[in-house]
Amino acid sequence: MSGAGAARRGGPVGVAVVGAGVISGAYLRTLRGFPDIAVLGVADLDVTRAKAAAHEHGVPVAGDVPTVLAIPEVEIVVNLTVPAAHAAVASAALRAGKHVYGEKPITTTPEEGQALLAEAAARGLLVGNAPDTFLGAGIQSALRAVRAGVIGTPVAATTAVQSLGPEGWHPDPAFFYQPGGGPLYDLGPYYLTALVALFGPVATVAATATRAREERVTGSGPRAGEVFPVAVATHVTALLEFASGPVAQSVFSFDSAVGRIAFEVTGSEGTLAVPDPNTFEGPLRVRANGSDEWRELPVAGTTAGRGLGVLDMARTLRGGGPHRASGALALHVLETMAAIADSAQGRAFRAVPPLPREAVPAALPEGWDPTIPVT
User: Fold this and answer.
1) How far is CA 250 from the centre of its chain?
2) Nearest CA-CA partner of 267 in 154, 123, 111
3) SS3 assignment, position 104
4) pTM for this one?
5) Which of 7, 98, 344, 368 is the most exposed, having the fewest neighbouring CB atoms within 10 Å of its CB?
6) Is the pLDDT of residue 2 over 50?
7) Distance from first CA to last CA of the chain, Å, rounded?
């Protein structure tokens, strides 16, 4: 699985984080707790910010991107930059002989994603990508329940995630409303990745989309009160048909005063209430046909947090086995989102390129423990 630029080694896998923004703290806290991983560097365009993050989390090297790419022991670069920079930073890491794990979406366009995976394959390197929340206890328990036939044969799913958008809490939210952002590209990966884990690849989609306002206002932090433009749809409704047969209807919105998170899977024998796919926990509930009551199902697995996908990649590098939060899976989700956006614009069904069978994520084995080293 490793190329000439990243020969197979032993011991903890060296990791560098590129992008010291809001989400980096969650990754650094989690990654520093995994014995299979050694966090060796933090980089950012703002070197002062990189140094502050490194100091807070006990990381030995901080600086710009070339600085951390030059660390010989770094095998995986965790790319936490804004979506518009994902492709360029990932490609730079590949050229340096590093495997790449990125935040979602993998790139802003399918063409960029396809080129990135082709480059990685040519160099013998791995690409992985968020979200990795589907590796958490909640979605893994839902996956086991569906595969065990708890609701019979899966028929359909209904999902919704609605709010007034991130500008109320994020100190620099403008990028959420540029290409590669919006509720579809920001929140869609959580729901679509979980759906693909449950049902397999998406085959066709249809959608509508709109936006409530042409401008938004930053609501917190040093930029509070700044007005910025909206360049993407902020309310998207999608219909999805999966190659295995089930269908789904999904709403992604930054225009709703009523916050809503919903994820239900309907089967021939009942309905499963799936946990929020933007988290790692439960609860998980089932309601059988003919029953008036929901029943709690056991939730088992890890709730360690963001970075599980990096750990899964590290263990793949050391021991082989399935690479679950893979670039191929992330590209399929990106191609699905692009097809949804195109369908909304063209008012027609759109086909989604197929996902190779081997890229449908395998379930984690029961007892998979991020705190017990296997490298």
Assistant:
1) 17
2) 154
3) coil
4) 0.95
5) 7
6) no
7) 15
Q: Would you call 356 exposed, middle or buried from its count of C-beta atoms within 10 A (0-12, 13-18, 19+)?
A: exposed
Beta bridge partners of 39: 15
Is the CA virtual torsion 133, 3, 85, 113 positive or negative?
Answer: negative
Could you report the per-residue pLDDT of 89-112, keeping only the tens digit for each?
999 999 999 999 999 999 999 999
Q: Residue 280 is which amino acid?
A: F
Q: Which residues fall within 8 angstroms of residue 240, CB to CB, at 6 or more apart? A: 192, 195, 202, 204, 205, 247, 248, 249, 250, 336
For residue range 159-207, list pLDDT tens digits in order: 999 999 999 999 999 999 998 899 999 999 999 999 999 999 999 999 9
Cβ-proximal residues to 167 (8 Å cutoff; 6+ apart), any chain: 173, 176, 216, 217, 218, 219
Domains of the chain as residue ranges with CATH: 13-133+306-331+351-359 (3.40.50.720), 137-297 (3.30.360.10)
What share of the chain in percent tops pLDDT 70?
98
Tens-place pLDDT, residues 112-121: 999 999 999 9
**How would you classify residue 336: left for phi > 0, otherwise alpha for psi between -120 and 50, otherwise beta?**
alpha
Instruction: Mention every residue, 6+ apart, whose C-beta is less than 8 A from residue 357.
Output: none
Number of helical (H) and strand (E) elements in the chain, helices listed first: 9, 17
Residue in this structure with the two tokens 């709403």, named with its chain if needed: 251
Cα 73 to chain centroid, rounded: 26
Q: What is the DSSP string of 207-254?
A: EEEE-S-SEEE--SSTTTT-EEE--S-SEEEEEEEETTS-EEEEEEES
